[in-house]
Design brief:
This protein is α/β, with parallel strands linked by helices. It is built from 13 helices and 17 strands.
């Protein structure tokens, strides 16, 4: 049996996979089918916030699976209520909605923003402004919301009601904010767009301009949230509070989940039958969420994330092929010179370290709890590759 051929024969080819079959992992270490060992600096694209098979997470998930795996949202379940209470209390939001992915969370946020405006101002005030190089998902609506022209192809007609503003250009944003605008949607760190953090002055301008016009601010923290940047939410790094925040990836620690956090202003926009999901808030997934939050929602844990992020930047800055190190906390991007991101990632696999790309940059998203000894070993390998 050829795994590679079976994949080609039976799975739709939407992924360009690396020739690597991963079979088991523990912490920040993962092994292939031939026994090869790798240090993981990807977290499954930011999903495995506690690494592979964390003992506490496994216990919580397996324990819940043995008791009640699914009921639908026609009934109350304790894990979902616990997760919502923990998230809203820790972040200062009013309520939460759980779904299955970041794209779904962003779809829900878009619906909330448009209904908020419809309820208050009537039809026609529905435009949402997003930023160039943003990424918000692969559904038809979130693809349109994504501010990268490369994604706006094949699937015509795309959803209407979106406009794009250059990231960092407050004057352009002010001009774009017209009477038909209901929301501005942004990522504080553009993950798929190259791990580029927004300028603080621009973020402040966004909130000031939107506040004057009763335009909602939606923060897509699908990749940057849940401790990734050294705070529970990256909005806390910038000292602002969006009207709506979306989460996913690292929230479930390896299980599919999305969440929408709403402020007092937007808490009651959606009512009965306005939105829904069969699987969202599933008890097993919520058990994983609760296990993640129990660990990540801790000042000492988050301080360690910031320290590890600083250490990564110190080790990788100034390398021969590194022009710039971007991102916040343990969300690290490397702008390269005289080398390509694909080449660096391929060499990393050869040397036992897994890394990611983001457009033309190398992207590093290690498990938040990676052991410092392992992180140092991975940085030794990455630094050597970047100095070749």
């Amino acid at each position: 049996m050829s795994i590679f051929q079976d994949d080609k024969d039976y799975i739709i080819g939407t992924y360009k996979r690396f020739p690597l079959v991963l079979v088991k992992g523990n912490g920040a270490e993962v092994y292939d089918d031939k026994g090869g060992r790798y240090i993981d600096l990807t977290s499954g694209i930011g999903v495995n916030s506690l690494g592979f098979c964390d003992a506490g997470w496994v216990s919580a998930v397996s324990g819940q699976a043995a008791v009640l795996q699914h009921t639908s949202n026609l009934y109350y379940t304790l894990p979902q209520i616990e997760a919502a209470k923990t998230l809203t209390t820790a972040t200062g939001y009013k309520k939460a909605f759980f779904c299955n992915s970041g794209a779904e969370a962003n779809e829900c946020a878009i619906k909330i923003a448009r209904k908020y405006s419809f309820d208050k101002y009537g039809r026609g005030r529905h435009k949402i402004i997003t930023l160039t190089d943003s990424f918000h998902g692969r559904t038809m609506t979130t693809l349109t919301a994504t501010g990268q022209e490369v994604f706006h192809n094949f699937f015509f007609p795309f959803a209407e009601g979106f406009e794009y503003c250059p990231a960092g250009d407050a004057a352009a944003l002010e001009k774009a904010l017209t009477d038909d605008t209901c929301a501005v949607m942004l990522e504080f760190v553009q993950g798929e767009g190259g791990v580029k953090e927004l300028d603080r002055a621009f973020v402040d301008a966004v909130f000031e301009l939107c506040g004057k016009k009763d335009v909602l601010v939606i923060a897509d923290e699908v990749q940057s949230g849940v401790g990734r940047t050294g705070r529970l939410l990256t909005s806390q790094v910038f000292g602002v509070k969006p009207d709506i925040t979306t989460l996913a990836k690292g929230l479930g620690g390896g299980l599919p989940v999305g969440a929408v956090l709403v402020s007092e202003k937007t808490a009651d926009v959606l009512g009965y039958s306005h939105h829904g999901t069969t699987f969202g808030g599933n008890p097993v997934v919520m058990a994983g969420v609760n296990a993640v939050l129990e660990r990540v929602n801790d000042d000492a844990f988050l301080a360690a994330v910031r320290e590890k992020g600083d250490y990564m930047r110190e080790r990788l800055s100034g390398r021969r092929h590194v022009e710039e190190v971007t991102g916040i906390g343990m969300m690290v991007g490397l702008k390269l010179k005289d080398a390509t991101a694909a080449e660096v990632v391929a060499k990393g696999i050869e040397k036992g370290v897994l890394m990611l790309t983001a457009k033309d940059r190398v992207r590093l998203l290690p498990p938040l709890n990676i052991d410092m000894k392992l992180l140092a070993e991975a940085m030794d390998v990455a630094a050597a590759i970047l100095d070749e």
